[in-house]
Amino acid sequence: MPSGGGGHNGGVTPAADAFGPLAIGRHRLGTPVVLAPMAGITNQAYRRLCREQMARGPHGEIGVGLFVSEMVTSRALLERNDESMRLIAHDADEHPRSVQLYGVDPGTVAAAVRMLVEEDRADHIDLNFGCPVPKVTRKGGGSALPWKIGLFAAIVGQAVRTAEPYGVPVTVKMRMGIDRDHLTYLEAGRVAEAEGAAAVGLHARTAADYYAPGADWTAIARLKEAVTTIPVLGNGDIWSADDALAMVERTGCDGVVVGRGCLGRPWLFADLATAFAGVPQRTAPALGEVLMVMRRHVELLVEHYAAVYPDDAERRACRDIRKHIAWYLKGYVVGHEVRAGLALVETLAAFDETTAGLDGDQPHPGGPAEGPRGRSGAARRVALPDGWLVSRDLDDLAVAAVREAELSVSGG
Fold first, then answer.
1. DSSP readout, 46-108?
2. Catalytic annotation on 318?
3. Helices (H) and strands (E) in the chain, counts
4. Strands 27-29 and 22-24, how do they pair?
5. Which residues fall within 8 angstroms of residue 344, CB to CB, at 6 or more apart?
6. Cα–Cα dist 93/62, whole Å
7. Is omega for the bond preceding 96 within 30 degrees of 0, making it cis?
8. In the structure, what pLDDT confidence band is assigned to residue 409 with cuts at 50, 70 and 90?
């Protein structure tokens, strides 16, 4: 039965006591909030932007939450191509440095973990068992993989044992299962706990749900009851800081994972810091403040791309920001001509020129600027390897499918 957050609550802030820090292995997070890894979004630049916004909160320091990189495949990381190395790049002051790995072969995942820890490239590693996209699930990866519970246990166990001597905690991010008839989250949560995972995060949808409205928060509560010795993190339909407080109150989870809710709203992390500190302060930026954050985002993207593409960084940064424009300007009165112009700029100077005539004093529009954003869509049939659901064990066909997946799913 769906019991999600339902979006912004009209500015009414529920009372909340301050929450203590969240422990992920040896790391203590002053605010129990994790930025979800999102492909094409949570690169080095965006993570810094969100950390800077969280620093506006009552803790007044960068890094009080956990900000996870874009997903990188284990195989691609071991090949050390430029794109994979860009995906795992971190700022000098970014701590804990968090990397999300995807993989379907225990040995390959363990080798990628070994590379990260031996070369001191990560302080925390998250394993992706939640991706619902067809190119991943049809090969038995992502949210399809926990159905093969022995394979799931082997991947988690080998990753944990490889990282443990270096003091690097390994966590698991997963969905409820393939569909409502093939739920795996309770068993997978207990297995991850037994294999030594430092925390489990649950996106309270199945792969079949995709990003349909109404995350099932009751599943998070059930997982919290089943997993008793490590933190359980909840994910799904957190569109505001008040939604995060409501999730914790309703499910008893130890912290929250925020994904689409922060798209075009990196200041959500300031709100989350204040909310979990028990402060009823929320951010309502005027258009001028939004434009300053957007410009800062572009500046950080230029720095990010300069490390790999020094002669093309500004153009790449301006093209990257295009996907964010509609999210940033949601609800504000900005003409079509300006929106279209921002989608064509290729320099910071052009960005400034295009936005120069806008009314920076235009107030925050309230409800129209809040609520759902990013991926959406109705439930769908999950693409799976032939015969995947016949058994929970790996047969010859399943072994062939996961081997192909390790080779075919690109980094990110």
1. HHHHHHHHHTTSTT-STTSSEEEEEEEEHHHHHHT-HHHHHHT---TT-SS-EEEEE-S-HHH
2. no
3. 16, 10
4. antiparallel
5. none
6. 8
7. yes
8. low
pLDDT tens for each residue of 111-159: 999 999 999 999 999 999 999 999 999 989 999 999 999 999 999 999 9
> Which of residues 308 and 31 earns the better pLDDT score?
31
CA quadruple 114, 120, 126, 129: dihedral positive or negative?
A: negative
Answer yes or no: are the C-beta atoms of 96 and 126 closer than 8 Å: no
Q: How far is CA 385 from the centre of its chain?
A: 26
Cα–Cα distance for residue pair 371/330, rounded to 1 Å: 10
Torsion of CA 26, 27, 30, 36, to 10 degrees: -140
Q: Which residue is listed with tokens 């403040």? A: 289
How far apart (Å, rounded) are the C-alpha atoms in residues 131 and 66?
Answer: 20
Per-residue pLDDT of 347-362, as tens digits, reads 999 999 999 999 999 9
Cα-Cα-Cα-Cα dihedral sign, residues 155, 156, 157, 158: positive
Give the amino acid at 95. Answer: H
Q: How many CB atoms lie within 10 A of CB 410?
A: 13
- Between CA 364 and CA 11 the distance in angstroms is 12
Cα–Cα distance between 66 and 36 in angstroms, integer?
9
Residue 182 pLDDT level (bands cut at 50, 70, 90): very high
State how far the Cα of 355 lies from the Cα of 293, in Å rounded to an integer.
13
| CA neighbor of 399 nearest in space, from 388, 412, 410 | 388
What distance in Å separates the CA atoms of residue 94 and residue 231, rounded to the nearest whole number?
A: 22
Question: Which candidate in 131, 253, 262, 318 is catalytic?
Answer: 131
Give the orientation angle of helix 241-251 with respect to helix 217-226, to 10 degrees: 50
Dihedrals φ, ψ of 127, to 5°?
Answer: -105, 130
Of the two residues 19 and 85, the one the predictor is more confident about is 85
Q: Which of 123, 126, 61, 57 is nearest to 95 (CA)?
A: 123
What's the CA angle centered on 6, arms 237 and 175, to 5 degrees? 30
**CA nearest neighbour of 62 among 78, 81, 49, 72:** 49
